[in-house]
Design brief:
The protein contains 14 helices and no strands. The chain is mainly alpha-helical.
Length: 274
């Protein structure tokens, strides 16, 4: 992304467009090392499920776990990652799947494991409370979509990766009360926690909806955000209207809210079946 922003810092021209097209073409690749790591993780999971005598795994849990790993790879290790930078809506769908769909799927796949026997996990649990993780995630997620923060992060590749990795870890912790079977949350507490989650995630989603209503792409806030978050489709002439218009921005906010709610509802239903 840092290289892309440098390319876009000059005036747009046919040469710039060709250069951007060439760069984008080089990014349409598959991350093989990540594929190997995630494949080993799946193999280890299947081996554990087969050999563990203390837990009973439902058949659909294996499907959920593998689906979560597959979605994670498609979102961050496939050409879809590069495509997600072409518009607000595509980028928000990518981030929403990574943070709102992948963690609960993976957690549901391991929901029956008696974590009480793993002392390291218990120690981590005492440090990172789900509600604290939820507040931290919501705050960092909101800050990530503010131009001043995104401008700084996008200029430092290591910091950006560390920031997103932190969000990913926090996402697992904040989803644990809803996805895991054995925890201290009762049914009513889970409902309250779900409502709190929706409330805290809402501001980051409303940024796009409200800003789109205020002059859309011509809004200085959105123009500044677009300069660091997305490649303008008009420079590449790849995506047609309504991409990168005020409608695209409104859709991105609605999609974030919808995918988050879908994650909550779906996770609850699968958790009830365990």
């Amino acid at each position: 992304m840092l290289i892309l922003h440098r390319l876009l810092s000059n005036e747009q021209s046919k040469e710039d467009s060709s250069l951007l097209r060439a760069y984008l073409a080089t990014q349409m690749s598959w991350n093989i090392p990540l594929f190997i790591v995630l494949s080993l993780l799946v193999v280890s999971y299947l081996f554990f499920v087969k050999t563990d005598q203390t837990s009973i795994f439902e058949p659909f849990q294996k499907i959920l776990f593998i689906s979560g790993i597959t979605l994670l790879y498609l979102m961050i290790g496939s050409p879809l990652l590069s495509l997600s930078y072409l518009s607000f809506s595509l980028h928000m769908v990518q981030m929403s799947i990574v943070f709102f769909i992948v963690p609960p799927l993976i957690l549901l796949g391991i929901a029956n494991i008696p974590f009480a026997k793993y002392k390291l996990l218990l120690r981590l649990k005492t440090v990172f409370r789900p509600k604290l993780a939820l507040i931290m995630f919501a705050t960092l997620f909101l800050l990530y979509h503010l131009p001043f923060m995104l401008s700084f992060i996008s200029q430092h590749d290591f910091i950006q990766k560390l920031y997103l990795s932190t969000l990913f870890i926090l996402a697992f912790i904040m989803w644990s009360p809803i996805a895991l079977k054995r925890n201290e949350f009762s049914y009513n507490k889970k409902r309250q926690y779900s409502k709190l989650s929706s409330l805290l995630i809402m501001p980051a989603c409303l940024i796009f909806i409200v800003s789109a209503l205020l002059q859309g792409i011509d809004n200085p806030f959105m123009s500044n955000l677009a300069a660091h978050l997305c490649l303008p489709s008009e420079s590449l002439q790849i995506l047609p209207s309504p991409f990168n218009t005020k409608y695209d921005q409104m859709i991105s906010g609605v999609l974030m809210i919808s995918i988050h709610q879908l994650g909550i509802v779906t996770t609850k239903k699968f958790n009830d079946r365990l």
